[in-house]
Write a structure and sequence with these properties.
Family (chain B): Belongs to the ABC transporter superfamily.
Strand order of the largest sheet of chain B: 6-7-8-3-9-10
Largest interface: A-B, 22 and 29 residues
Strand content of chain B: 25-35%
Organism (chain B): Phytohabitans aurantiacus
GO molecular function (chain B): ATP binding
Helix content of chain A: over 70%
Shape of chain B: globular
Protein name (chain B): ABC transporter ATP-binding protein
Order of helices and strands of chain A: HHHHHHHHHHH
Number of helices of chain B: 9
Order of helices and strands of chain B: EEEHEEHEHHHEHEHEEHEEEEH
Oligomer: heterodimer
Number of domains of chain A: 1
Strand content of chain A: under 5%
Shape of chain A: globular
Distance between the termini of chain A: 23 Å
Number of helices of chain A: 11
Largest sheet of chain A: none
Distance between the termini of chain B: 31 Å
Number of strands of chain B: 14
Keywords (chain B): ATP-binding, Nucleotide-binding, Transport
Structural class of chain A: mainly alpha
Chain lengths: 260, 287
């Protein structure tokens, strides 16, 4: 598992498109609100500034890395490497876990660069070095669960449909399930199932600019939107990780079936 | 290490039988496997490598039951496998790729792994290119990386499927020699279309056709299948239509044809001494 994780991470980090995609999304986020960023860098509320930044990051960047991770599992067969790997005594489950952790770790690197880069600049401009600590917390409880959730589906779903189709459906899902208001249509937005991480961002990091987690009056699927508390925030993290584990279990089953 | 295959059948859903009640014993040493495309060679290799499960039948590799999960794992620990459609990760260098496969094969000691990878890069003449990404490698160079990965864990069973495809003549000869040298106390199963590779390296071989065993014996036995059935004829006219033309070489008086068939292809045809390729063709004609 460790060997696979190590080499999968190295290969993903060498993928130029990963860096370009993240850079383009970040550039768009900056250009869409240039003056707003100027204000943010002087905002004395370090906790809320970091939380708001993470909210924006987690709303937009998963579209990029989710699409990039879509070929990681299926490419072993496409490249013709799968027979060599499958003929080794290494456990297929360990290799799958290694591939998952390695690719997710690689996807998380640019996110760390962006978040800690912002926090570092903010620390200097606002004179609030505590932002780095809030960034570390936000990275752990908001960014990483999203990466692990998206990574699991990006590895699994292309086993049953072409990767380009997955990418299209994934982008559609992402904005339906994380962006669209629950008042407009049934959606998982603002629920514990939303990998955008609104519960953990609001309750654990301290997002205060807007309240997103919790029941929405008149919305369907409100059973997925319990009152926002630190406990439900941790529940949300747990649910996302459990669903990710379930998706990986399906991936392993699908791969085992192809050996028959 | 002896391989005993009994009643081995593999049925692919919607594609029919790739192997049909195959019985075969492969002794220690170098063993050739010949057959046309679709004969079932690759399916047999994939079953032996633990990549496919047979529909019926048994496979014993040494003391291991190759059809049981534990047995497959035990076989994979002593296996070197070079698949027909070999792929590599383009983002890794040859050295990294081999290091990765070595880790998967359980060579955990870093120094031993580095030493082994270095030795094998030398063996396949890739030391100078070892730190270049595989993306830029030619087909022949990738094949050599494939050969190196198969030899990583000093395997007692080596299964090589079309190993010399894509290699230039010099590389082909070098690799054939290497396989023969490795054979000693190991079992090397060589599947190929290139009859000459078998002729130069194997004493014993089997021929598959439509998933069945149609021949098992020595190279000499197979060659003798063409006794009295090989002819040469020189003509300026059209190519012979009886028998199978093995070769056509320009000649002062037209073309010189070598033909395998039951009867002479022309009244002035001369009998010729058969070689392994003639024997293989004669067998195919009989089948």
């Amino acid at each position: 598992m460790i060997a696979t994780a190590r080499y999968e991470m190295a290969m993903m980090l060498r993928k130029r498109s990963m860096w370009i995609t993240n850079a383009v999304i970040v550039l768009l986020l900056v250009l869409l609100n240039v003056s707003g960023w100027g204000d943010a860098l002087r905002d004395p509320d370090a906790r809320n500034t970091v939380a708001s930044t993470v909210f924006l990051m987690n709303l937009m960047l998963p579209v990029g890395y989710g699409s990039l991770l879509a070929d990681r599992l299926i490419r072993d067969s496409r490249l013709g490497v799968a027979p060599i790997l499958d003929a080794t005594p290494a456990s297929p489950t360990g290799r799958l876990a290694g591939k998952y952790l390695g690719t997710c770790a690689a996807a998380a690197v640019p996110l760390a660069v962006i978040l800690f880069g912002f926090a570092a600049v903010y620390s200097v401009t606002a004179g609030r070095p505590v932002a780095l600590a809030w960034a570390a917390l936000a990275y752990a409880v908001v960014v990483l669960p999203a990466v692990l959730f998206v990574g699991a589906f990006a590895l699994t779903v292309p086993l049953v449909m072409p990767a380009p189709l997955f990418r299209v459906l994934f982008v559609g899902y992402w904005f339906w399930g994380n962006g669209i208001s629950p008042a407009v249509m049934p959606t998982t937005t603002q629920s514990v199932l939303s990998p955008a991480g609104v519960y953990s961002n609001q309750e654990l990091v301290g997002l205060r600019d807007f309240t997103l987690a919790g029941p929405v009056p008149g919305a369907t699927l409100n059973f997925l939107r319990p009152e926002a508390t630190p406990a439900t925030a941790w529940l949300s993290v747990g649910v996302l990780l459990a669903v990710a584990a379930l998706a990986l279990g399906v991936a392993q089953t699908l791969r085992t079936r192809t050996t028959r | 290490m002896r391989i005993e295959i009994s009643g081995l059948t593999k049925v692919y859903k919607g594609k029919g039988r790739a192997l049909d009640d195959l019985d075969l014993v492969v002794p220690t040493g170098m063993f050739g496997l010949l057959g046309a495309n679709g004969a079932g060679k690759t399916t047999l290799m994939r079953i032996l490598a633990g990549l496919l499960r047979p529909t019926a039948g048994t496979v014993r590799v040494g003391e291991h039951d190759g059809t049981a999960r534990a047995g497959r794992l035990a076989v994979q620990q002593i296996l070197g496998y070079l698949p027909q459609d070999l792929g590599v990760y383009p983002d890794l260098t040859a050295r990294e790729f081999l290091d990765y496969i070595a880790l998967l094969k359980g060579i955990d000691d870093r120094a031993a792994r580095r030493r082994r990878v270095g030795e094998l890069l030398e063996v396949v003449a890739l030391t100078g290119d070892a730190d270049r990404r595989l993306r830029g490698y030619s087909g022949g160079m990738r094949r050599r990386v494939g050969i190196a990965q198969a030899l990583l864990a000093d395997p007692r069973l080596l299964i090589v499927d079309e190993p010399t495809a894509g290699l230039d003549p010099e590389e082909r000869i070098r690799f054939r020699t290497l396989l023969s040298q490795l054979a000693g106390q190991r079992t090397v199963l060589l599947s190929t279309h290139i009859v000459d590779d078998v002729a130069q390296t194997c004493r014993e071989l089997a021929v598959l056709a439509s998933g069945r065993l149609v021949f098992r014996g020595t190279v000499g036995d197979l060659t003798r299948q063409a006794d009295g059935r090989v002819w040469t004829v020189v003509t300026a006219g059209p190519a012979p239509t009886t028998g199978t033309v093995v070769s056509a070489l320009p000649h002062d008086d037209g073309m010189r044809y070598r033909v395998v068939g039951d009867s002479p292809p022309a009244f002035d045809a001369s009998p010729a001494a058969p070689n392994l390729e003639d024997g293989y063709l004669a067998l195919a004609q009989k089948a």
